[in-house]
Design a protein that fits this description.
The strands form two sheets. An eight-stranded antiparallel beta barrel has the order 8-9-10-11-12-13-14-15. Strands 3-2-1-4-5-7-6 form a seven-stranded mixed beta sheet, covered by helices on one side. The chain is α+β, with helices and mostly antiparallel strands. The protein contains seven helices and 15 strands. The structure holds S-adenosylmethionine (SAM).
Length: 294
């Protein structure tokens, strides 16, 4: 049963002394990679411990400590900033950070006036994140719950952020693709299998490892046969990519970005919005068009 998107508590004690059987692949792989030492150095250099150690709260996490499915390695602040920039967050959004660590992504969003929530399995980390939010004066906008990220309800988020693992991203992918079209998903460095990002950017200033922000927009479901102003539009969809025909002409440059759809047929560019079983928009030259799924 999904845990609701509100504070709940799971009584567990995962910490740096967690048993090795609880250590995820990322933990073992990360430690065996030469780059990992550099990540630790870089993370520490970016004041990781400064945010992690909040006055009034004594828990001090170690970079690389075990977590349930992923170790704790904090996202460097310039990458947090880039992730939120790529997602183009506004006060209308609700940000959800999956595996929120010391709370930096949630707190950064809250400081920009955006409601943000973190889900963290380690109760000590969640408590630390709350203390950090308090210290930064954003505890009303930045909330945290102790829970397993696989068990929570994602449906209230308009932006989901994560720094997990490729395998975990792929496990989450079916759930992410069922979220409302237009929901943005942003990952630090790790991909989402063959669902290619809509945008990505690498931060070169102030970051030496895990510096790439990747952003996906959950696409509308457009596959099927549509009746479009007296012609049959047939669409095949793979994530945000489309192919198909309009009448007897193949469409080209066809793409979805959330609810936005665009394609070219017979030399004409069509742009519009998908809304369930209906679509409408404007063709090049200004003529309006509409379609219904049949
Ligand atoms: C790589 S750290 C990223 C922390 C933070 N999001 C950031 O970018 O700085 C991953 C975090 O996920 C947490 N975590 C691991 N498995 C989890 C699970 N199944 N549910 C919730 N949190 C989890 C870890 O404790 C750790 O704090």
């Amino acid at each position: 049963m999904p845990v609701p998107f509100v504070t709940s508590s799971v009584t567990l004690s995962v910490s740096s002394s967690a048993k090795s059987s609880a250590m995820p692949a990322f933990h073992r792989r990360a430690r065996s990679r030469p780059a990992f030492a550099a990540v630790l150095v870089a993370a520490l250099a970016f004041g990781t411990t400064a945010l992690a150690q909040s006055p009034g709260y004594s828990y001090t996490p170690d970079v690389g400590q075990a977590g349930k499915d992923v170790v704790w390695v904090p996202t460097p602040q310039p990458v947090v900033d880039k992730m939120l920039e790529l997602a183009n967050i506004t006060p209308k959004d609700t940000v959800l950070d999956l595996g929120s660590g010391d709370g930096r992504t949630v707190i950064t969003a809250a400081k920009r006036g955006v409601k943000a929530h973190g889900v963290e399995y380690n109760p000590d980390m969640a408590a630390l994140a709350r203390a950090n939010a308090e210290k930064e004066g954003v505890s009303k906008m930045a909330t945290f719950q102790t829970a397993d990220l696989f068990e929570i309800d994602l449906s209230q988020a308009t932006v989901i952020t994560m720094f997990l693992l490729p395998t975990i991203n792929e496990r989450l992918r079916p759930k992410l693709l069922e979220l409302p079209a237009g929901t943005r998903v942003v990952s630090n460095s790790f991909p989402m299998g063959d669902w290619k990002p809509d945008r990505s950017e690498t931060v070169s200033q102030g970051c030496s490892n895990y510096c790439t922000a990747l952003m996906w927009v959950v696409p509308a479901k457009a596959a099927g046969t549509w009746q479009m102003d007296g012609q049959r539009l047939t669409l095949k969809q793979s994530f945000q990519n489309l192919e198909g025909t309009l009448g007897s002409n193949a469409i080209s440059d066809a793409k979805l970005e959330g609810k936005k759809i665009a394609f070219t047929a017979n030399g004409v560019r069509y742009e519009g919005m998908v809304d369930g079983n209906a679509m409408k928009g404007t063709a090049a030259g200004g003529k309006t068009w509409s379609a219904r799924k049949s």
